[in-house]
Write a structure and sequence with these properties.
Order of helices and strands: HHHHHH
Low-confidence stretches: 169-173
Number of domains: 1
């Protein structure tokens, strides 16, 4: 009972941190480094509590490193922000190889929905109607960046049931 409660709490940490990253990116176009650090530090204890074996931990760490490099390349090309690159890597760490394909597909779909929503919000017929906090007006500004952390977080949360921790080495949750 206590073990299940602890495991659920640690897994909730993932959902909490990626959701916070999403909201923070939406309102400020930044994802704090402590979010990615928290995800990176929290992964090993969470994985061990979920019965993930040593080789799978190393595999997930390698995947996280590969995704960090991919994120750095996308950052260098100015496709994503630095926080997005780090969130992509640390979410991949938690999802592992079993969750990678769903994560990428769900993130792409969420990114497409985000792009369509921003296009609609930034259109000539909606833009004059936009009023509210500065972050809403910034989102509605034509040509402004997209808070892609929102899509990454949505993809990570949607893929989590398919991921490594939910399918731990001992049958998952």
């Amino acid at each position: 009972m206590t073990s299940d409660l602890l495991r659920t709490g640690i897994l909730g940490l993932f959902a909490l941190l990626v959701t916070f990253a999403s909201v923070k990116d939406l309102v400020s176009y930044t994802i704090p480094n402590w979010v990615s650090i928290g995800l990176a530090i929290g992964f090993a204890p969470a994985a061990l509590l979920c019965g993930v074996a040593g080789p799978q931990l190393l595999e997930a760490a390698g995947l996280g490193a590969v995704m960090l490099i991919a994120g750095m390349v996308m950052f260098a090309l100015k496709w994503v922000g630095g926080g997005d690159a780090k969130l992509l890597a640390t979410a991949s760490l938690w999802l592992g190889l079993p969750g990678l394909a769903p994560f990428l597909v769900f993130t792409a779909l969420a990114g497409g929905a985000l792009a369509l929503g921003l296009l609609a919000l930034r259109s000539a017929w909606v833009r004059p109607l936009v009023a509210g906090p500065a972050w809403v007006e910034r989102l509605a500004t034509p040509g402004a960046a997209a808070p892609y952390g929102v899509a990454i977080a949505a993809g990570a949360l949607a893929a989590f049931p398919h991921g490594l921790l939910m399918n731990g080495a001992h049958g998952g949750l």
